[in-house]
């Protein structure tokens, strides 16, 4: 039962039990002593002595507990968190020996282990860098080959989720909704037409030509659905895409072939963290009051399979409809002139909602940013019913509630650098938060939190942090 409690809470319960036991023994001794005297007039003296003993003993226990908590329990939690950073998040900072100076040989031993982990990680990183360079060369060759094929193409898994798209396909998909890996193809194309063509493909095993209507019903596309041989899924080729890109233009690929193997239909709280898609976002606003201030900028990135998806980002200026105070402009560098002609919150909110479709929304101090969106939900015409994760609470779970949980502190703890040029911009802070999230996911798994439900159960224990923060 106690194994599920934090070390500091278990230490507190130990001292609470010690205090209760000591007071109980002292009370029993005084009662027995009073009974042995047989003198009624001694009662007040025994009561007074009991009060002095009680307060003195409680003060002693509380004082020892505070010293133990500050010099033993907290440093142990901090040391454990630092080791988890080294082991699971690729951290390279040195173990703080001064903060753990009362732990005897434990801290130097941990520092030595962290050093060995760092050396091993460096060797592994070099091997990964070599493999990454090889894969980058292969990707460059694949991109060069695709340049010779002047059509837009999308690779789709059997569950009709996007596994790969090229630059031209991104332009086609963007006519309907933001292009996204792991997104359902039905977000872009009419479900009935896609399913009918796929059924024909499954029956014949041969290429199928079909005319597919956009999900918005506004456009029609001539397409070919091609089988992938022994691999699951299919390749969808747009033959007459209305967006034309020169064959000589760059054709960036966005892909994750792990998405070809899709997990079953599992309840959200039981989904494994690596199987989730996260949209990490941040806002810049005219002020700090969600009930009256307005959003001036939204930035968001997508995290899938534990990595940030390059090429899938949202960076929008938003016209707040009210003047931006100079003090706010000084922080985020967004001025009234910059938002002239930008979309209002209704248009920007709908675009962000589509970008975050079927994903977990993540933010640092999420209640603040979400309050602006919830306030305008009716005007935007959407429901913000996404699952939410807050990196403030994740930090409390991993590093202890008593630590500092600002974004800067988290980045420093996990070795994430925020360039000064993008600090306090929506996309810059969203990118930094995403990098923090990517480093924390394996740390959560190492703590035994493997599903979304496991993580939510732990973060709820620290909900008071957000109430105090806001």
Number of domains: 3
For this structure, what is the CATH class of the largest domain?
Alpha Beta
Enumerate the spans where pLDDT stays under 50 for 5 or more consecutive residues: none
Strand order of the largest sheet: 3-4-5-1-2-6
Count every helix, treating DSSP H or I runs of 4 or more residues as helices: 15
H and E order: HHHEEHHEEEEEEEHHHEHHEHHHHH
What is the rounded Rg? 29 Å
The rounded distance between the terminal residues' Cα atoms is 33 Å
Main sheet, how many strands, which sense, barrel?
A: 6 strands, antiparallel
Structural classification? alpha+beta
- The percent range for helix content is 40-55%
Approximately how much beta-strand content do the residues carry? Answer: 5-15%
Number of strands: 11
Per CATH, what is the topology of the largest domain? Nucleotidyltransferase, domain 5
CATH H-level homologous superfamily name of the largest domain: Ribonuclease H-like superfamily/Ribonuclease H
């Amino acid at each position: 039962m106690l194994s599920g409690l934090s070390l500091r809470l278990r230490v507190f319960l130990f001292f609470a039990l010690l205090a209760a036991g000591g007071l109980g023994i002292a009370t029993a001794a005084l009662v027995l002593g009073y009974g042995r005297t047989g003198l009624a007039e001694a009662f007040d003296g025994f009561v007074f002595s009991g009060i002095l003993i009680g307060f003195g003993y409680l003060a002693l226990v509380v004082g020892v507990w505070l010293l133990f908590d500050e010099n033993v329990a907290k440093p142990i939690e901090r040391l454990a968190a630092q080791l988890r950073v080294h082991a699971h998040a690729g951290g390279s900072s040195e173990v703080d020996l001064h903060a753990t100076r009362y732990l005897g040989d434990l801290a130097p031993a941990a520092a030595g282990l962290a050093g060995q982990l760092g050396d091993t990680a460096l060797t592994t990183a070099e091997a990964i860098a070599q493999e990454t360079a090889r894969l980058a060369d292969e990707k460059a060759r694949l991109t060069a080959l695709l340049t010779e094929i002047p059509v837009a193409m999308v690779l789709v898994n059997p569950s009709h989720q996007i596994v790969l798209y090229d630059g031209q396909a991104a332009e086609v998909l963007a006519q309907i909704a933001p292009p996204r890996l792991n997104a359902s193809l039905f977000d872009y194309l009419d479900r009935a037409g896609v399913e009918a063509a796929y059924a024909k493909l499954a029956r014949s095993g041969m290429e199928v030509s079909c005319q597919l209507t956009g999900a918005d019903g506004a456009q029609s596309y001539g397409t070919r659905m091609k089988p992938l041989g022994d691999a699951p899924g299919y390749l969808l080729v747009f033959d007459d895409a209305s967006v034309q890109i020169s064959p000589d233009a760059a054709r960036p690929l966005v892909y994750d072939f792990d998405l070809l193997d899709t997990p079953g239909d599992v309840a959200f709280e039981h989904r494994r963290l690596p199987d989730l898609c996260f949209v990490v976002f941040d806002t810049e606003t005219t002020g700090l009051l969600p009930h009256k201030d307005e959003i001036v900028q939204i930035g968001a990135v997508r995290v899938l399979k534990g990595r940030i998806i390059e090429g899938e980002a949202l960076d929008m200026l938003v016209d707040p409809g009210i003047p931006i105070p100079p003090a706010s402009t000084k922080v985020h560098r967004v001025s009234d002139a910059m938002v002239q002609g930008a979309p209002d919150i209704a248009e920007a909110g709908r675009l962000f909602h589509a970008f975050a479709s079927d994903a977990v929304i993540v933010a640092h101090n999420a209640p603040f940013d979400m309050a602006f969106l919830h306030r305008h939900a009716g005007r935007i015409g959407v429901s913000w019913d996404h699952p939410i994760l807050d990196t403030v609470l994740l930090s409390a779970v991993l590093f202890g509630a008593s630590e500092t949980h600002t974004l800067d502190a988290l980045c420093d703890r996990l070795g994430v650098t925020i360039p000064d040029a993008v600090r306090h911009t929506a996309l810059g802070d969203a990118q930094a938060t995403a990098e923090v999230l990517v480093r924390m996911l394996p740390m959560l798994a190492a703590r035994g939190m493997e599903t979304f439900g496991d993580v939510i159960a732990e973060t709820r224990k620290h909900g008071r942090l957000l109430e105090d923060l806001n």
